[in-house]
Amino acid sequence: MKYTIAPISTLIYQRSHRRRQALAAAVAALLVAGAAAALVAGPSAGSANALANGLALTPPMGWNDWNAYKCNVSEALVKQTADKIVSSGLATAGYQYVNIDDCWMQSTRDSSGNLRPDYTKFPDGISGTAAYVHAKGLKLGIYEDAGTHTCKGYPGSLGHESQDAKLFASWKVDYLKYDNCYNQGVSAQTRYTTMRNALQATGRPMVYSICEIGFSSPWLWAANVGNLWRTTNDIQPNYASMLSIFHKNVTLSQYAAPGHWNDPDMLEIGNGMTATEDHTEFSLWAEMAAPLLAGDNLVNASATTLSILGNKAVIAVDQDSLGRQGRMIRSSGGLDVLAKPLANGDVAVVLFNENSAAATISTTASAIGKSGASSYTLTDLWTGAVRTTSSTISASVPGHGVVMYRVH
Length: 408
Ligand code: GLA
Known about the structure:
The protein is of the alpha/beta class and 408 residues long. It is 31% helix and 19% strand. The protein has helices at 8-37, 66-69, 75-87, 90-93, 125-135, 161-170, 188-202, 239-249, 275-287, 303-309, 312-318; strands at 61-64, 97-99, 139-145, 175-179, 207-210, 228-230, 261-263, 292-294, 327-332, 335-341, 347-353, 359-364, 376-380, 386-389, 392-397, 402-407. Alpha-D-galactopyranose binds next to loops. The site of alpha-D-galactopyranose has 11 residues, from loops.
């Protein structure tokens, strides 16, 4: 089949998405009211119909170059970042995938129709880069697009799925982020399923990340197609963008389960928000069982950034084996309470103050789904402080900030 190039489709992709975002914000308050009525331990999508590749039983963790480097990706950057992931201790904390985003390839396929790495950026190619990353005990991810071109204009995989999947497998790629630009109006379900089948046919396990950005509600159809699906347009390194993505993603908790996750996009920690906001993003993403893909310059990351990304108590909430996405159990005037049931019976609670002035946020043990004990232990996952309560869970929360507890 022959597809024509339609440069305007990128614009349509972004503009129509902004309209969707505005609509989503408008209905968010209504949805929150509904979610508050639902029990914390309400139904979850379960994993019975999950993609049968056995991967991403907990949300994927790693790094991706896009947020900090856009098209300036290179083999040197990937190697230095892999080194840093190991030397900083982030690998031990669970960060595993080192993911190359757009702009890694040449602008045309070769005479046999194969994609070619840009050898000025990747002198050893993707296979050489993968070998280096694997030798560090990490895994390599790559980016392609379910259209005629990637968002930045490089050759897309539409109509070449089988050939490209085989090439990725031959390079020993472990993860594919598959974007949605220049899609020629072919249904997303068709295009993403074709690549799923092509990946499966290679026999190499590859995490399959659907970057469709929410147009066709992938949470409704992608549980057995991909391991994660973007729920919104691209995140930006500011509080307003992070907040609007949180508002959308938090409404989709029922669709997350082991093997298939809502993806509110990569982390912006270390990219310009305040330290308070960076703590907030990490807490909210963990509470929502989101993929934890650092999106900053890790090589030169500050001690604060590394300590946020490396908080093992918060990571444990994200990576909990029960695989439940936390729900908003109450939201009033920008003061939110989220609860996430954990495998050992504990509940992770986030008290989130969306506003700029400090405020007290309170809930109770029964509201978060705990009952039957005369006292509960609250461990503050950022300070490590431990206290007990008979019922009330309450804290003064800074503007744009969170307090995050594990309730036992
Ligand atoms: C889209 C995706 C981003 C990034 C760029 C690359 O905008 O949503 O995450 O992959 O394409 O061009």
